[in-house]
Structures are given as C-alpha cells and as structure tokens.
Amino acid sequence: MPPFVTVAAYAPPGVGMLGAGIVAEVFDARGPGLPGFDFALCTDRPGEVRTDTGLPLVAAHGLDRLATADLVIALPWTGFRTPPGPAVLDALAAAHARGALVAGHCVGAFALAAAGLLDGRRATTHWRFAALLAERHPAVTVDADALYIDEGQIVTGAGAAAGFDLCLHLLRREYGAATANTIARDLVLPSHRDGGQAQYLATPVPEDCEDQRLAAVLAWAREHLAEPLPVAELARRALMSRRSFARRFAAATGTTPHAWLTGLRVSRAEELLETTNLPVDEVARLVGFGSASVLRAQFVRRRGVPPRSYRRTFTHAPRT
Q1: DSSP letter at 228?
Q2: Which stretches of the chain score pLDDT less than 70?
C-alpha cells in the first residue's frame, strides 16, 4: 500500500480536545520536503461537535469521508463506555475492509474493538482503561504498558500525549524517519519513542542535581553514538555508581541504558540510510553498531526489514 495522503479523524460527541488537536497538528504540518496531507475532522453529521472540555469543534465532514481516506483515526471521547452507533462501526469496518490504515488513539481503541477490528490482535489504550477493554473484548490481547502497537493495517496507541508517538510512528513507517523527525523537531517533540516503552513511570523523578547530570550524559551520548558507550562509562560521567545510574535511568526513561542506546542507534541509522549514500558498513560504524551484520540484525528486529530494503523504500539521498 502506498503512503497515506488523505487522513480522516473521527470525532464523536465528547471528543477529546487534546486528541483532536494532536492529530490536526501533526497532519497539518507544512514545509519543504514534507508530505501535503489532506486532513479532515469528521463526525456522524457535519457540524458542531462538543468536546470533553465543553468547547465546540466544527467537523466539516460526515462519515462518508471515512469511505475514501487512506488513514482513518478513531479519536478518544468521553462516552467510550457505550459503543458508537451501527453506522460508525460499519464505516470503520468498511475502511479496514477496503485496505485503509486504521488507528485508534487512546480510548478510540474501544471503537475499533466494538467494530470487531481488534479481535485476535494485540492492542493498547490508556493504561487506566486497559483492564476494561480486556474485559469487554476478551478476543483482544490488551497490553497496558505499550505506547503503541502496530498490527499492520491496525495500529493502536496509548492515552493523552502518546497520540504524538502514534502519529509519528505512522509517519516513520510510511514516509521514513527523516519526515517524522522533521515534524517532531517542528513540534519540539522527542524524535522517536519505541512502542515498547512504558506508558508511564511508576515513580516520578525529582528535579535535583542527579537528574541534571543524567540529562547531560544523555545529551553527550547522543553526540557520541559511534563510541562503545558502556554503562560504566555513562555512570562515571554522571558521577554515579553503575547500580545507581541504572536505577535513575530506568526511573527517568522507563527503559534500560542498553535498550535506549540501541533504539537511538537504529533511529540515527534510519536517517543516514535515507539521506546519504554511505555504505551500510559506514552507517553501522557511525551509529556505534560496529559492523553491517549487527546493524542488520537490530534493524530487522526493530523495523522488520534489512537496512538495504529500508534505503530503497525511503531514500532521499541524491543519486551518484
């Protein structure tokens, strides 16, 4: 399926203002080299839609827009405990049946589940309502921890601001890392958070000198990816013991130093594969994987394709 161009976000009565704002902000991005998306907010009947804040939004399109969109996003809404009407469920099912990419942001996953689109699949939603989704729809394998879950033609994401992670993942998947990172930079967002990263941190991290040292070390590591970067070295630079560093790192990022570095290296490799003609061996060296075979193994594991296939699909480098 070619990259999506037309995007329709379904906004039921009581739609989350934050969710609607996130998808509108991402898919209304403009600039040199960026895709020009045809974005539409739609609802059961065109007109004013009351949001969860009580403020109105104007949805200029009805459900007919779901019948033609390349990407259909079910937005979260306050009344998610009651399934949408048959016309909405039929429209979501029909979009999936004709090959559209269908996504559910936050409790928008409840609409996809009610339409039968999540049966036999893994899915996520806001962690607070994951147990309810699993109880209501036992045929769905619900992961309460994931930021987003990609099941091919169906993608679900966690709550609130994780909608940005969902949208950026869809852009990265279909248009490549350079496009997603450009939009992320414009929105002042992290360029990539892996879908397996925890939705929330169990223990908030206090703002103290240790956290400032940790932030400085993470920034330094980003600039030195070609180096080995063992945990002992990172801990030394943070003026912490290795054990204390690992504990503080997990509290601040929700993952381990090794997993964080690997994800960062894969993301940087994506950009180099897209925007340069460097040999894969050199890309591997520059991002710290050391050899093309290690890069290939990590790339296939995390992106599902080998580096050369990714480059053929997403390259923006000038041909020489």
Answers
A1: -
A2: 1-2, 191-192, 196-210, 316-320
The tens digit of pLDDT for each residue in 180-190 reads 988 988 888 87
The torsion angles phi and psi of 229, rounded to 5 degrees, stand at 55, 55
DSSP 140: S
Rounded Cα distance, 92 and 44, in Å: 12
pLDDT of 281 reads: 96
**Could you report the per-residue pLDDT of 113-166, keeping only the tens digit for each?**
999 999 999 999 999 999 999 999 999 999 998 999 999 999 999 998 999 999
Q: Which residue has the tokens 């779901």?
A: 66
- Tokens for 208? 């103290």
CA nearest to 176, candidates 302, 264, 270, 266? 270
Q: Which of 55, 22, 20, 25 is nearest to 41 (CA)?
A: 20
Residue 82: closest CA among 107, 45, 48: 107
Q: What is the CA radius of gyration of the chain?
A: 21
Instruction: Give the residues across from 10 on adjacent strands.
Output: 42, 74
CA 92 to centroid of chain Cα atoms: 21
